[in-house]
Amino acid sequence: MNLTKLALILPLLFVTVRVMDYARLTFLPAFYIFDKVRLQQICQEALASLDIDAPAQKIMEKTHTLLKKEYPEFIVDELRPEDWVFNNAGNAMGSMIILHASLTEYLIFFGSAIGTEGHTGTHFADDYFTILHGVQYAARPNASIAEKYLPGDQHHMPYGVNKQYSIPAGSFALELAQGYIPSMLPFGMIEVLTSTLDVASFAQTCVLTAKHMFGNILKGKI
């Protein structure tokens, strides 16, 4: 690439990013339906209603019931075992089930029965990770002591910020992302080409995501 082309592309890229950032703060929030504070409260209510040693599956089922009551039109009707899929992203591997997916928001249960560690990714979205069972550790590059998030805690990953993270065996969370959701999809799917070759999980993720997104568009939710 010659310097002339670079001189044209860099300003265009800068303007594009600035416009996207402005729209994220002013335009996109009008399409959000989920309240991060209320979601954390729902998770805490689910935890408070169960025994302290309740298994992750029971906590997620209770959380799903409360979410369905709060957002009846936009949460899946049931947590079907066949809708859980492997997710490989940032060299971390876990399992997820989609509760909601649209162009500006997604809501999932994510975790791992055996634990995982990796890179959060750098996203054009805000991410809110509310712990339901287990614990999450996270750290910025200059950290010598990890951040620690316990059940009921919400870990906010702002737009454009990235960290290293880990969750030990049996840890699960409710994860909300708000922003340019399609821009996040390559991060969540690229490892099928670079390492896992797990075409079945890739295909299932694509089908479920498209089903949710188009279904919500028909409801007027982008």
Would you write up a description of this structure?
By secondary structure, this protein is of the alpha+beta class. It folds into two domains: 1-31; 34-218, Jelly Rolls. Helix content is 37%, strand content 27%. The chain has six helices and ten strands. The strands form two sheets. The protein has a six-stranded antiparallel beta sheet. Strand 2 (92-101) and strand 3 (105-112) form a beta hairpin. The chain is globular, with a radius of gyration of 18 Å. The mean pLDDT is 93.
CATH homologous superfamily caption of the largest domain: Jelly Rolls
Identify the overall geometry: globular
Radius of gyration over alpha carbons?
18 Å
**Helix-strand pattern:** HHHEEEEEEEEEEHHH
- The share of residues in helices is 25-40%
In what order do the strands lie side by side in the largest sheet?
1-2-3-10-5-8
* Largest sheet, strands/sense/barrel: 6 strands, antiparallel
CATH topology of the largest domain: Jelly Rolls
Structural class: alpha+beta
Portion of residues in beta strands equals 25-35%
According to CATH, what is the class of the largest domain? Mainly Beta
How many H/I helical runs? Answer: 6
The appropriate CATH architecture of the largest domain is Sandwich
Topology of this protein?
Blueprint: H1 3-26, H2 36-48, H3 56-70, E1 85-89, E2 92-101, E3 105-112, E4 116-119, E5 125-133, E6 136-139, E7 147-149, E8 154-157, E9 164-167, E10 171-179, H4 185-189, H5 191-196, H6 199-218
Antiparallel strand pairs: 1-2, 2-3, 3-10, 4-9, 5-8, 5-10, 6-7, 6-9
Helix pairs in contact: 2-3
